[in-house]
From TrEMBL:
Signal peptide: none annotated. GO terms for molecular function: DNA binding. This is Integrase. It holds the Pfam family Phage_integrase. Residues 6-91 form the Core-binding (CB) domain.
Amino acid sequence: MSLEPIDPETAVELYLADREAEVSKATLYSHSSRLGHFVRWCGEEEIDNLNVLSGRTLHEYRLWRRRDGDLAPASEKTQMDTLRVFVKWLESIDAVVDDLHTKVRSPVLRDGQNVRDVMLESDRAEEVLDHLSKYEYASRPHVVLTLMWHTMMRTGAVHSLDVDDYDPDAQYIAVIHRPGEGTTIKNGKGGERLIALSNDVCQVLDDWIADRRPDVDDEFGRRPLVSTVDGRAHRSTLRGDCYRYTRPCVSTGECPHDRDPESCEAMVYTAAFDCPSSVSPHALRRGGITHHLNSDVPKDIVSDRANVTAGVLDEHYDRRSQREKMEQRRGYLDNI
């Protein structure tokens, strides 16, 4: 069979145009988002013609995507299932060899594996934020972890924020979907919301903006709230901040794994995720949600604030034990 050359960006555009009449807008958006990672990987690997795809290259992408996104098995399965559908479509336009889609592998989920239990506990979060407040006050990591914990934002939401989205007088911050200007949030327009901020969080943001924030614009002329000297902080930078500062040795000076800091691989700036006790932004968000629920914040308030449905909150985020839930309910019985 003679293959017809096609670059990754064009292939994805044609695929999405072809599926537009068959699937919902939400599904189309999800496929666009997932395949965007594949296009990004192709760029990094200098793959400009999909004719070269093979079982090996697809496996290399799977490993890269797992690490790049810190994916749980359920999330990895979703990503690879979408890629398999895309590769099968590529076969239909003679862009790849026949039956290549059968070589796109996905994890086989065991019972309960669609839910991750890893989260940052409240006492650990307090240690981390106290350390940052004392030794790296109003630094970028302090701002990032403060927002993630107190507002329960996803990484994409923190990445999307502009200075102008923050209202210091009314003490709130706006999360806005701007796909035409390089920043997207989960659930698109449906994920837009205003989030109230406490006095302490506002003080950290005020001092960051006034004294420590690199005064730069991004490529669209916007003023990113979380910036580096090069512009808007990349999502991977935000994830790295989370991994680095949740290593216990950073905030406590002690290693629960008896590792030697001089030889520990996780002490390398880009390898903090190798620490068994460091956590991803998703685990921090899960911990923040559970902390709010344990603090008797009503579930509907947490749901709106964190932009997650009540059903998803119950299944994936609420890590209170049955006894904790019972004792909280008991508090409401005194007035009956």
